[in-house]
Amino acid sequence: MTDAVEAEGLVKVYGSGDGEVRALDGLDLRVAEGTVVGLLGPNGAGKTTTIKVLTTLLVPDGGRASVNGTDVVADPAGVKRTIGVSGQYAAVDEYLTGFENLDMVGRLYHLGAKAARERARELLAQFDLADAGDRQVKGYSGGMRRRLDLAGALVARPPILFLDEPTTGLDPRSRLGMWKVIDELVREGTTLLLTTQYLEEADQLADRIAVIDHGRVIAEGTADELKDQVGGERVEVVVADAADLGRAHEVLGGIGIGEVGVDDRTRRVTVPVSGGASVLVEAVRRLDDAGVTVSDLALRRPTLDDVFLTLTGRSAEEIDDTEDQQPSTEEVAS
Amino acid sequence: MSALSHTVADAVTVTRRNLIKIKRVPDLLVFTTLSPIMFVLLFAYIFAGAIGEQNTGVDYKEFLIAGIFAQTVVFGSTFTGFSLAEDLQKGFIDRFRTLPMSPSAMLIGRTMSDVVNNVISLVVMGLTGLLVGWRIRSNPLDALAGALVLLVFAYAISWIMAYVGLIVRTPEVVNNASFIVIFPLTFIANTFVNPETLPTVLKNFAYWNPVSSVTQAARELFGNTNPNFPPPDVWSLQHPVLYSLLWSVAVMAVFVPLSVRQYQRTTSR
């Protein structure tokens, strides 16, 4: 299979001197034709910058990238003809109707007036916006705007699609709706690179996931492969009394399959396990035997935070916290 | 289709989008038209008495109208920068930039729709002027030429504003920043007072300020000049139409390529 998207050693630096931020720091990425790759990472990891370089919005400071075999720096116009892009914010015009938005995009793709109109109607129907199509977008919900924005990316039936955080800011119901729409697209053979902060979303939509941090891909694989790296399920216990932390550590060490993590501040003890609910029962029994009073206990599937904890030794939350104090990459980006 | 016809078609599409907004957001149009009306009325009734006929021997309303026209269309061109900064902020320019459209079409479409804005302002101000006693004393063709000089100059300025909008990126800041520049530019001129009355440095600035020549050109073409009050003997004001057009061409020669280049490397935050 050929690669629809290929990036090698991408570097993008914002600012200079002390304020220098390496938004991309040697990023390598491949998306095989007809597959979906999810670029997973916290805010400021370089997701949006990656999309912007691949969609010709930004020129990289180093490395090379091609889309459909066309170099993004040497021939941006050629790249634009084969891609559809939906950015982090729904870039739809509030004062135009849904139809007018899509019709305008169709004209700018030079489809011709008639074809642009027909395609606009077709997409409105496909994205469940037919009834709202002749109303101004300012009355649309967040989910409807996102769907319209995605429809805009599909006007010219591009073989390669880039979606930057397609569900960020949507309520759970709209998110599910968006997943369904994307899933259908992919089934028709569109190559897709999407970014997300949610492992669940990557899990749901992507064939392969690339975890990105500090402008670099730090792990790559299928969802299952990544979860295995993290250690699959884990038991998490919050003890009522901090004095019990030591005993809880000991007990969980006996049932776990990996290293026990202890957080003194939240009185939380975590250990990777295998075996599902039965392990949980065993944990309850042993903790009880040891006389440890538990205020919370759960069996958890890995989250993005766990992936990060395992891959970087920091939690995704910590990464977000430190980057709130400095300008985050996304803010400097531009 | 050739590259040129693509550019034209794309610019028309973008212009249409911007004009739909004028139609759908009536507040915009109301304020576009209200402030020129306000300016005509304020200046005509407040300044006319103070610096009017008894001091200069000139009908101040006749003198004033071309100055207000010039000031208003120059201010009108700031809307170009404001709108581009807004489109940038909302990710709209990102979307356009990922389409295989002509890179200059977005800017041509923006500046062209702002010409429409300025035409509306001019018509409204003209009607208000007629109500308060201003008259065109030349002929319709000359008057039209006067309006054209104003619009061409404002169009050139809106390319500066396009560049400012793409660099500054925050619509409100674009507005405030351009206000600080445009206010003195349109006041240190022959717009509202006789520049002879100004201190030397300001006087020389006013003589060579293109806003003065645009105003003088409009005055002459509207037939609002007065033999008692000839323009100062400087080349810029003796050849106001030529001098205004030279400035317009020079500004565009610099800022059209600069803005298009900036547009092609600009992306939202």
Could you tell me how far the N terminus lies from the C terminus of chain A, measured between alpha carbons in angstroms? 35 Å
> How much of the sequence of chain A is in beta strands?
25-35%
CATH first level of the largest domain in chain A: which class? Alpha Beta
Q: Which residue ranges of chain B are poorly predicted, with pLDDT under 50 across at least 5 consecutive positions?
A: none
Number of strands of chain B: 0
CATH architecture verdict of the largest domain in chain A = 3-Layer(aba) Sandwich
Membrane topology (chain A): Peripheral membrane protein
Organism (chain A): Phycicoccus avicenniae
Family (chain A): Belongs to the ABC transporter superfamily. Drug exporter-1 (DrugE1) (TC 3.A.1.105) family.
InterPro entries (chain A): AAA+_ATPase, ABC_transporter-like_ATP-bd, ABC_transporter-like_CS, ABC_transporter_ATP-binding, DrrA, DrrA1/2-like_C, P-loop_NTPase
What can you tell me about this protein's structure?
- Chain A: One of its GO terms (biological process) is daunorubicin transport.
- Chain A: This is ATP-binding cassette domain-containing protein.
- Chain A: Residues 325-334 have a biased composition (Polar residues).
- Chain A: Residues 315-334 are annotated as: Disordered.
- The complex is a heterodimer of chains A (334) and B (269).
- Chain A has 334 residues and is of the alpha/beta class.
- Chain A has 13 helices and 14 strands.
- In chain A, the strands form three sheets. Chain A has a six-stranded mixed sheet with strand order 6-7-8-3-9-10, sandwiched between helices. Chain A has a four-stranded antiparallel sheet with strand order 2-1-4-5. A four-stranded antiparallel sheet of chain A has the order 12-13-11-14, with helices on one face.
- In chain A, helix 3 (98-108) packs across helix 4.
- Chain B has one domain.
- The model of chain B has no long low-confidence stretch (mean pLDDT 91).
